Amino acid sequence: MNKSNLSNYRSSVVKPHDFQEFWRQTLEATERVDLNPRLTLDPMRSNYHVEVFEAVYRSYESVEIAGWYARPRNHPDPLPGLLFVPGYVSEPKLPTDLARDGYAVFSAAPRNKLRSNRVFNPGYPGLLTHNIESRSTYGYRGFYMDAVRAFDFLAQMPEVDERRLGVLGGSQGGALTLLVSSLRNNVVAAASAGAPYLCSMMDSASLTRTYPYEEINDYLRLNPESESTVRDTLNLYDIHNFVDQIKCPIIVNVGLKDDVCPPETGFAVFEAIGSENKQMYTYKDCGHESGAGQGHGKVITEFFAKHLSPNPVGSSAGGFVPEI
């Protein structure tokens, strides 16, 4: 498609008739599990400005999820909170840079990462098509809930100001940012989603031959008779169908030469976002890094500073690089 006409792209995603009920039941089942949050100080990863903790909580089907929690030392006031959600193959970042910027930060590791891979580990490639013909046991059902409960973990921290909570991530993290901003739309105050993955998934599989979406093409080459079933499952999980619920200020960035998460689908999901305060940043010569080398990290920093009002405690890297 001519990249100058990306705003005209229309997704083929259809919202299933039981979409709201399915996710209502899933959230209820998740919230019946005691979050049981625990922190253990990690002195080796802490420094003069920042305390770092190993964090653990329980999520959907009682799977134990891990991550890193970091906060400024000796903070005098309630802190704004940031949830950082990871890319497809990347482990959660150690968020000391964001903590130095003045945030309490939870860098989450949804199932299949860190310690939870002992009980759920479809691998990479593998996660995108894990139980893809089953709407109820598709791998992303629990994965999505892990991201939502990571936000709940952050929100219940006593030093965190529940009125100043943000979410950010790139690629799969961009998708999870959109998801959490949708399902926790009454409490997320600001969000930044880079090069969002899991949007118009069947379209993306036809627009690129790059992994992870190539996993769908590989699966359908082996199981061509399953295409309608696969499409039905993915419609239920497609981030495109969640984002009309988003209310908070949000920025989205895409690279117009992205061959991992096609920019067409980024434009389509941005158009569907329900917030009246949304802005897209496009980078014509960028691929999946979606502007990281052209100053978009500063855009993100300034965006959250405006909406969450942190008090920095030390020098920071000042940028965010999307992950896949």
User: How many discrete domains?
Assistant: 1
CATH architecture: 3-Layer(aba) Sandwich
**Relevant CATH superfamily:** Alpha/Beta hydrolase fold, catalytic domain
Helix/strand-derived category reads alpha/beta
End-to-end Cα distance, whole Å, is 23 Å
Instruction: Based on Cα principal axes, name the global outline.
Output: globular
Oligomeric description of these chains: single chain
The share of residues in helices is 25-40%
Per CATH, the class reads Alpha Beta
Descriptive report:
- It is a single chain.
- By secondary structure, the chain is an alpha/beta fold.
- The chain has a single domain (3-308), classed as Rossmann fold.
- It contains 9 helices and 9 strands.
- The chain has a 9-stranded mixed sheet with strand order 1-2-3-5-4-6-7-8-9, with helices on both faces.
- The chain is globular.
List keywords for this structure.
324 residues, alpha/beta, Rossmann fold, nine-stranded mixed sheet
Quick take:
It contains nine helices and nine strands.
Write the layout of secondary structure elements.
Layout: H1 19-31, E1 38-41, E2 50-58, E3 64-72, E4 79-84, H2 96-100, E5 104-109, H3 140-155, E6 160-170, H4 172-183, E7 190-194, H5 201-207, H6 214-222, H7 227-237, E8 250-255, H8 263-272, E9 278-283, H9 296-308
Parallel strand pairs: 4-5, 4-6, 6-7, 7-8, 8-9
Antiparallel strand pairs: 1-2, 2-3, 3-5
